[in-house]
Design a protein that fits this description.
The structure is a homodimer. The radius of gyration of chain A is 24 Å and the shape is globular. In chain A, about 35% of the residues lie in helices and about 30% in strands. Chain A is an alpha/beta fold. The first copy, chain A, is built from twelve helices and 18 strands. The model of chain A has no long low-confidence stretch (mean pLDDT about 95).
């Protein structure tokens, strides 16, 4: 008898019929001899509707009250799902974030999970209930409601799995798992059966939309084994767990792509060495997430720095850096390039397999694709290419590492 | 500096514009130098919409989960109202039933208020906040959510007023107060400035729709002075408080009417004396609220009993009593009459003013209106009339007691 936490997102519970589908899946899991905890999101569209209502009242609603408002979305879906389970003749009990014992800290609309006291959930499991918990929310020490920000329901599920000591946490989405590359781009992309936390993290941060990095980090921290699965079928998904030696046999596990990238380059810098922190602070104050950073000193002794970021942030970045130019040097200039994309190859096997970079850039060169900025981590190599080249780039690199074969 | 609790119902917060209107009223009350607690309902229509969703899932949803679902209605309106107050530049803090410290017992969907720990609300008042509490809901000792049933938000407001020791609890509705009679029926009906709890209770139980009896009882028990007011203007309303000697000067304070009444008579009863409890138990088991009871023994030694009830319950009552007839006597018969209405006159002055009944029945007789069953309490006289006669009956009785004059 295993204890399984299953997480279903907003589209999986988006209609009454879909709620019934989830109820059936939970019941099947219990009938197979397991203890079952569900963590679910609000019905798709509800959260946006509530935000719309708030904005009818004012432009910048106080975040404390926005949390009170938004938390009702999950509170509705847990009640409806419990009704559906009851209607099918099985025992269910709903738990808001607070009732599930999810204690948070930090700020409203982006609370962080502190501890989980799962005693009530475990008691309900002991009584034979399927427990249905509201994702995305918790309660701070002062009793006020926190929501957990984007991807918060995944985080709730992973944290709940840690608290109840679940054997596995299944994250249900609308895809069968994590693929060697986006199947819409690379037709022969394969589902990856097992990934390490590190690989999942690198894929999340390099464009794979399956799961947010902080949920993966939480799982890694508490050694929660999780599996990304499709809520519309029963196919096995991608299991994410601690790295083991067998994972190193493959040099590369997957190819991620990220579109809508832009590059900003500041050149002609003659200011003293502190200029990097001047630039990074200016971008941070403008709330711009930068991705790749390349810095070097040119032959004439003047420094230049380049950054990539989402295209949508380009205007803000230009405005923030323009003000800074006079401090960076007399001849300091700003240069921007939009219409870029980023290609990344990820794999823990990179550590022990030589020549991965050579294979990547060889394949791109052979296809006549020019590369721009390059950045690497221990288990990832990323490069920018022209947006128009990204799909072909993904295909040739995917093929170069034979990722279409098991 | 007074402490004022204001309660606004669903139609008063039914749109964003109306929510803004309530925000303005609360702010005006605070600006006038008062500490302000609001207790509000869900936006009108939301509760019905949520019940509709539940019934899409199943016919008889489990009440625990129905409460979880319904409680989101008020949770949304408190958040939106706090946003509106903030938008106008004032401090506000929302409280769900649980956060407001409203502890309940009893059953789901009709929880009863046990205690209120208003410490958090008082702390927020001390910080200068307008406190906005969700009506209609509380939390049971085991942490589960209770709703309080029909009229629950009035009850929340009265109870909160008792807990924070408010100087007054203002119940805002869509009428200016309690009238000497329904102004749609009696054109020269006047607003009653002051009523005793007992008079308000009798008027509530005899058709006045302004407030449910159990909220009035709660106010009486904890000596909460409350005022029924109109949320769309600033007119003084009807204050309800402890009886005082000046109230006895008027024999009659108001005339209530209740339509859609039916009468059931069981005659030919020869069973021993326990028959009354047999009949009442049968009606109670069928969940029928009976109103007037008249019992007597006819000249032939056979007993007969008559009851009035809402017309909608007539079918159920017939079915329940039919099964019982054989136990009541060989010749026991059931006789029913629909299409009735009830007229009641109410006033604590009845105790010391003689001739009230004579005036009522004299006025009706003069107008040629036949009366049916009659029931009395210490401060109320009620009679049934044909439904078609009720409006004229109300007018002649209202005139007979000169209720159109201050």
């Amino acid at each position: 008898m295993a204890l399984i936490v299953q997480k279903y997102g907003g589209s999986s519970v988006g209609t009454i019929d879909r709620i019934r589908n989830v109820a059936r899946r939970l019941i099947d899991t219990q009938k197979a001899g397991n203890r079952v905890v569900a963590v679910i999101s609000a019905m798709s569209g509800i959260t946006d509707k509530l935000i719309g209502l708030a904005h009818q009242v004012m432009d910048n609603p106080p975040e404390r009250e926005l949390d009170v408002l938004l938390a009702t979305g999950e509170q509705q879906s847990i009640a409806l799902l419990c009704m559906a389970i009851t209607d099918m003749g099985f025992k269910a009990r709903s738990f808001t974030g607070g009732q599930a014992g999810i204690c948070t800290y930090g700020s409203h609309t982006r609370g962080r999970i502190d501890t989980i006291d799962a005693a009530q959930v475990i008691r309900a499991l002991d009584e034979g209930c399927i427990c249905v918990c509201a994702g995305f929310q918790g309660v701070a020490q002062d009793g006020s409601i926190h929501t957990l920000g984007r991807g918060g329901s995944d985080l709730s599920a992973i944290a709940m799995a840690a608290a109840v000591k679940a054997d596995i946490c299944q994250i249900y989405t609308d895809v069968d798992g994590v693929y060697t590359c986006d199947p819409r781009v690379v037709k022969d992309a394969r589902k990856i059966p097992v990934l390490s936390y590190e690989e999942m993290l690198e894929m999340a941060s390099s464009g794979s939309k399956v799961m947010q990095g902080r949920s993966v980090e939480f799982a890694k921290k508490f050694s929660v084994v999780f599996e990304v699965r499709n809520s519309m079928n029963n196919n096995p998904g991608t299991i994410v767990q601690e790295e083991n030696s067998s994972m190193e046999s493959l040099a590369v596990r997957g190819v991620s792509i990220e579109r809508n990238q832009a590059r900003v380059t500041v050149s002609g810098i003659t200011a003293p060495v502190a200029y990097t922190s001047l630039i990074l602070n200016a971008l941070a104050e403008a709330e711009i997430n930068i991705d790749m950073i390349v810095a070097n000193t040119a032959h004439d002794g003047m420094a230049r720095q380049s950054f990539t970021m989402n295209m949508n942030d380009l205007g803000k970045a230009q405005a923030a850096l323009k003000k800074l130019l006079p401090k960076l040097g007399k001849g300091a200039r700003l240069e921007t390039e939009s219409g870029l994309a980023k290609l990344s190859v990820v794999g823990v096997g990179m550590r022990s397999n030589v020549g991965v970079a050579a294979t990547v850039f060889g394949a791109l060169a052979e296809a006549g694709i020019a590369t721009g900025m390059i950045a690497t981590s221990e288990i990832r190599i990323s490069t920018t290419v022209d947006a128009g080249d990204i799909e072909q780039a993904a295909r040739v690199v995917h093929a170069a590492f034979h990722l279409d074969r098991a």
